[in-house]
Here is the input.
Amino acid sequence: MDLSHLFQIIHNHRPTLQSARGEYAVLVPLIQRGERLHLLYEVRSATLQHQPGEVCFPGGTMESGESPVQCALRETEEELGLPSSAIEVIGPLDFLLRGSSIVYPVLAVIRAALPGDLRLNPDEVADVFTVPMTWLRDHPPILYRYTHRPHPVDFPYDAVQVSPDYPWAPIVTEVPVYSGLSHPLWGMTARITHHLIRQINEAM
Here is the structure.
């Protein structure tokens, strides 16, 4: 391999999470209802294999060559029956990790559509509901933090010349849980929600 070839490889590379097992994108949909902005949430179908009945944003796995915005719009049309022409993308939000995968949230406004106008895909979506942004601001989630310490088995401590009591860095997991809603809002969807509300508050 010569240097020019290396330059070409790195120049065309789109950085992502090292050893990522998958990349996902979700749309974080805003709806104007009266004078207030609401966030729109989905309730996953009870027949889904993964996380049935849980609250989420529309989204899914990014296909090869697809951008987060393209993925979020495609998945929203598949799940809610909304074409991209009815959605105004505001921009990307901070991405987050889900295990060893990366998730890209995309903030957008749904135009000319109310929850009753959506065509839900029953294979994926059981219901939708909205929550005013002001309610989410005034009712922050409780944050539950859990510390996980790695316990490697059969690690070659001698080969890397470290002691078996090596102080592995702990992993802290933060799980936000909102109370008082019609459906439980927690986990990754709550993390995206809480981060967005906090980002808006800090900018005001």
